[in-house]
Amino acid sequence: MSNATPDSDYPLSEVPNGARKGLFSTAILLFGFTFFTATMFAGGKIGMAFDFTTLLWAAVIGNLLLGLYAAVLGLIACRSGLNSVLMGRFCFGEVGSKLSDMLLGFTQIGWYAWGTATIAIVLVKILDLPEGLTIPLMVLFGFGFCLTAFVGYKGLDLLSRVAVPAMLVLLVALLWIATRDIGGLAGLLAVEPSESMSLSVAITLVFGTFVSGATQATNWTRFAKSGRVAVLASLFGFFIGNGLMIVAGAYGAIVYQQPDVVEVLVLQGLSMAAVVMLFLNLWTTQDNTIYNFAAAGCNLLRTGKRKTVTLVGAGIGTLLAIGGMYEMLIPFLILLGSIIPPIGGVIMADFFYGHRARYPKLADVCLPAFNWVGLGAYLIGAVSAYFSPWVAPLVGIAVAALAYVVLFELNKALAGRQQVAGA
């Protein structure tokens, strides 16, 4: 069934017990993944609209929901040894799963393009470089950022062990200087919001910004030694890590009216620290993102050549960056909040309800070309999320999961009637 090689990170098969990782390795990798500049922009928007206390509540609720969502998928990934795209074969069928492959691959290559464009544009601005260097820098970083992903889990793990502590030090320094500049906690609490936003919109923004990443964090939680490791690592990465990004972005917006951590560091007189933060911040997310793309691409093409797919993905992401992906962030986020979370809802319902919490081995099972129950549930969830006036990603997950259960029972009842009629 699988033509994966021992060093290929098992793109087409379950992760064996001998390749499983402990809590520190899994958690620090996910922590580095969630340290992302775009998340700070979301935090900045919230910081402009709420007082500090309400802001913290929005961050806690949104990131707790995100962490729990990632934790449930992480538990499934650990128990099955599969990532989201491989689980898609059970949920959507052998051919139908190509839909989720394309959706998940598209989101990740979009993020990769945005990150590649961001670092080139910001470096030209901060270092006062000639504008003509922007595209060459996009090419340099477009392929440079994929090197650790090319190596695989070991490369991602090594980078995170170096980058995460360095970023935490820079973040603590930023927050300490900002607190001093605003006049301490009293000054922070005294700042009045300059914009307006409902709490439900704020929670949607927090949850939706990185929900596509949480849906594909199964690429690493499937390496976890135990369900406990997968759950704790997911909560650490998505509740704590993503929460820090939201709060840091909001902090900068409140104190300096600037949500971008790089701009904040420049305003604080720490230009070189800003360059280091930007580089580490993006690299630890970019390599994870292109790794996600490779996982989806391998399943789509049914190939074990993960490294080749990684390089092709880097090339596509670089071309999109050059083509202007930088300007498309907000519409891209809105789209992701509708089309990605329902995949997670279908996966959870299919595993716990459809398969009674145990998938058979991929190599031992013959799956249908299309699983219409899963595909129908996904469509209902995605449409509901897109038109929902409430927290769209949560609506998508809940409706997709509920629709799966209803369609599963209807399909079972119909099959039973056909058997009786045939007899």
UniProtKB/TrEMBL annotation:
Keywords: Membrane, Transmembrane, Transmembrane helix. The chain crosses the membrane at residues 22-43, 55-82, 103-127, 133-151, 158-177, 197-217, 229-253, 265-283, 309-326, 332-353, 365-384, 390-408. It comes from the Bacteria. It is a multi-pass membrane protein. GO terms for cellular component: plasma membrane. The keyword Transcription does not apply. Pfam families: Transp_cyt_pur (PF02133). It is found in: Membrane. One of its GO terms (molecular function) is cytosine transmembrane transporter activity. Belongs to the purine-cytosine permease (2.A.39) family. This is Cytosine permease. It comes from Ectopseudomonas toyotomiensis. The lineage of its organism: Bacteria, Pseudomonadati, Pseudomonadota, Gammaproteobacteria, Pseudomonadales.
